[in-house]
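Here is one record:
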Amino acid sequence: MHAAGMGGIRTAGDLVARMQLSRKMRLNEAKKYVADKLKVSVEDLVDEVVMNELRQELDISTVYAGMGEMSRGIESKFKIAKLLDLEINSVQRFLRKTGWQQ
């Protein structure tokens, strides 16, 4: 039931999928991990309104990230990597190529 409507960046589907792929977590385990990190319930992960507000608050991009001062692209990925305690390849490549320290 919880997966119904969990569509990418509109909710937390992209974050849950990252955990499934990078840490080989099962779906329910990934949902719980993301919910715990975001300090919301697993049920909130599929709520577009709750997640849109939370994504704006955490500045980790939304469907309409091009509007206003929301982070986009690599900036959002940096924030997601830190938030989920996760290595994201594009972030790691950026750090290596630029020599920038996080």
Summary: The CA atoms of residues 28 and 87 lie 21 Å apart.
